[in-house]
Amino acid sequence: MKDTARKSLEELMSDPRVLEYTSSLNKALKDRRNEPVPRCAVFEKPYTMLRETDRYVFQTDREAENKLPRIIGNKVQIVEGVDQPGPEIRGQVHKERKIGIVFSGGPAPGGHNVIAGLFDAAKAANPKTRIFGFLLGPDGVMEGGYVELDRDTVDAHRNLGGFGMIKTGRAKIDSDKKMQLARETIKDLGLDALVIVGGDDSNTNAAFLAEELYSEGVQVLGVPKTIDGDIQVRDENGEVLCAVSFGFHTAARAFATEVANLCTDASSDVKYWHICKVMGRVASHLALEVALQSHPNITLIGEELAEYLDEERLQKAKMDGRETDYSAFGMTLRHLSRVICDGIVRRAASGKNYGVIVIPEGVLEFINEIQVFIIKLNTIIADYNRMHDTDFHQDFPTLDEKLDYLRRLARRSRDDRRYTSWSTRDDDLFNDIPAFFQEGLLMERDSHGNFPFSQVETDKVIMGLVQDYLKMLGEKGLYRVGIERAVYQKTMGHGRLDPDFYGGILFSNYKTKDTHLLLREEIISVRTLKQALVRAGLLTEKDKLPSAIEKIYKKSIPSFKTQLHFYGYDGRGSDPTWFDCVYTYNLGWCAFSLIASGATGQMAAIKNIELDFGQWEPIGIPIAPLMHLEERKGKLALVLERALVDVDSTAFQIVKAHREKWLAANAGPDDYRRPIPITNQAAYRQDRPITLLLNAVGKGRL
């Protein structure tokens, strides 16, 4: 049978099937966009109102009281549904408004649903209400860049990841001039309210804007967004008001899926250690959740390292009659490399010279010696820029020039004891650090004056030390690949050699019941192997080493191979999990409820998100009482406090309790876990962050 005539390219390009197969709008995407998202019970009511409560108590910072006097007294507000309110509430809800919304900071999955929720709620209250999206983040607010959002635009982005609808940016409205520019845009547009979707800095902006625009009647609200999960709100009694910011669950699941794939590959190829750095500059929440989702062999949690106490060093100082050895407090880089090496060596001894390690990108921030350097260098760079009205990195473009400047500061400290920013000891210790890491510590700070940990090759720093130590252990005969007894016996049999006759000479644990045999420590080369056999009278100096024994030796010598991976932008660009779809859509509705009831300086939040959807409780959290003084750009600034991993939490303690099981330094199978794929299928809609579930179980809430 002959082939039919081949179609021309022009015919193919207009063929409906070709158009379908190559369209950017595949069926799964269309289904995802069209999937209706449920609303909390209060939003099913025709009206909502706010009820203030004194139940939650916050300890306010004096500086916040001074800088934010109009909103510092705000209380937590409970959103309640109402069937038949009075005329005043009806009038407020149905009022025609102009509302602006802006994304600030890095993208987080679910942001589009915040807009969708706000849009749906506002249009339901009054179809004439107009929603304006500011383009490219806070710059849009200051420069007047905006677009009016219509239903077609909003519908095209429902349940989808990214911030593509209006884009985002990292500018801050943090000066009088910038505040004036923002005010002019808001006034020209005639906005009644502005919703700022962002992280700690962005919600700080929201608080200051709310204070600034209070007398002009413009409401400003925040929505907590960050994949790092470090926006969490608890009152003074530890009651959770905001368990985690949106986007965290999706990013953690996206990262965990990739890490789980590497676990599968590692246990199949059995020759690589995969080093997985995951986002989390300030806190290790993502690393903790990824560990729970995928069970990698080793997971570092920065907050635990900061709590480390070297009991052995303290005891030694006490026995020597010395004062407390303060260097025993906090993990050092050297000791951290030893901890990792211990796990690698133990797995190798069980025949597993492979594995997966998860490292949070900001782990170095929790290493005491590194943190001291960062604090000092932040201050030095900020002081230089302030005093010289120029830029440190432009004036000293090369590493050598930067190091020369630091040496001059060290010499100054010798002549002037009042100068303590950089001592000769600091200079000596800094010069012991590898050049690439020196360069990393001296790199340009981000727009907020923060040290850019995501640009530092954290994994390279740590694994460089690990490789050096493993080499030393190998030379001492302490890092070996365990040989299965059956493999040893079979290899010796092929060489017509009696395994029992040679076993006690070759292996330190031959007479035990261990499943894997370890070569004796003194056998560190072919030469020392032959010497051991000669000493035992099994060979003479002139005899050739039996090939079977040499083969066993080569199998026992580990080759430490690594593959480095960074998980960040891919996860924050993922389509949201169903949890984040629902969470963010209801945050949008919550934001409108706060606006409709006249709130300002509040953060839209959903309480009880770790519980079943029917128990979710929309609330407004006052931002000002959450703010405190923190060092930024070398000076103190009033900012929203970021939450670290609580090492006493149930979730962390359970991860800690599973470390031995997940390390799997034994002959049994690894305990790798495959997370649920990111999907909006009904079967997986009750999925929640495991961290939140475990903490809820620990508190008796589940």
Number of strands: 19
Radius of gyration: 30 Å
DSSP helical segment count: 30
Give average pLDDT, whole number: 93
Which strand-content bin applies to the residues? 5-15%
CATH architecture call of the largest domain: 3-Layer(aba) Sandwich
Largest sheet: 9 strands, mixed
Q: Give the tally of structural domains.
A: 4
- Order of strands side by side in the largest beta sheet? 1-2-17-16-7-6-3-4-5
Helix content: 40-55%
Which ranges are low-confidence, i.e. pLDDT below 50, for 5 or more consecutive residues? none
Q: Tags for this entry?
A:
702 residues; alpha/beta; Rossmann fold; 4 domains; nine-stranded mixed sheet; four-stranded parallel sheet; 19 strands; globular
Tell me what you see in this structure.
The protein has 30 helices and 19 strands. By secondary structure, the protein is of the alpha/beta class. It folds into 4 domains: 26-246 and 576-640, Rossmann fold; 250-360 and 456-481 and 559-573 and 648-702, Phosphofructokinase domain (Rossmann fold, 3-Layer(aba) Sandwich), CATH 3.40.50; 362-443, no CATH class; 482-556. Strands 1-2-17-16-7-6-3-4-5 form a 9-stranded mixed beta sheet, sandwiched between helices. A 4-stranded parallel beta sheet has the order 11-12-10-15, sandwiched between helices. Strands 8-9 form a two-stranded antiparallel ribbon. Strand 6, helix 10 and strand 7 (219-224) form a beta-alpha-beta unit.
Describe what is shown at a glance.
This protein is of the alpha/beta class. The chain is built from 30 helices and 19 strands.
